[in-house]
Amino acid sequence: MDAPFWSDGLYFECARCSACCRHEPGFVFLSTFDLRRLFTHSALAFREFVDTLLRTVDIGTGNAISLREKSNNDCILWNGNGCSAYEARPVQCATYPFWQGVIDTPEDWNRESLDCPGIGRGPLVTAEAIGDRLWRRRAYPPLIIPYDVALESIDEDTLLGRSGIASDTLNAR
Ligand code: SF4
Q: Which residues partner with 67 through β-bridges?
């Protein structure tokens, strides 16, 4: 198999333009790992956490959990100056722009640079660091709820994967 085009690394440094957090509709899918970290960071009661921050998105095989958006399409966690949960931000956000579909080919990478001014600037991100981000996306997949299970009906321990078995069961059903 050929080495990926990024085997010598890629240049990226976030320009903090917030284009990937605001203005456009999109989905930030959450794993149980993300949910646990965000819940702890939020300091909200569990039901308030679910009702304020979460929504479900039909992805064809079930309903994935995503962050909500404000009416202007800003991420629900955007506070006017940046991410209000930056230290606990989801894996999807922390690994951007090193997503499989973005680094499949040089053309994909160049196309993404039209939306992200951080691409192509700053220090070199090594192949090892890029590989680590790809691994994290695979290691923490979005939690998918079966169609016959309402988000509102899932108890705290199950949604947050505290029992392990329960959240795995949600994904496997
Ligand atoms: S679009 Fe790129 S440069 Fe702008 S905030 Fe997102 S990652 Fe940073």
A: 54
Band of pLDDT at residue 20, cut at 50, 70 and 90: very high
The backbone region for 44, taken as left when phi is positive above 0, alpha when psi lies in -120 to 50, beta otherwise, is beta
Vertex 82, ends 12 and 123: CA angle to 5°? 15
32-42 and 46-53 helices, crossing angle to 10°:
110
pTM for this entry: 0.92
Closest alpha carbon to 35 in 118, 137, 158? 158
Residues within 6 Å of ligand 1 by CB: 14-20, 96, 116-118
Which of 28, 86, 116 has the most ligand 1 atoms within 8 A of CB, as the residue to mutate? 116
pLDDT per position as a tens digit, 90-126: 999 999 999 999 999 999 999 999 999 999 999 999 9
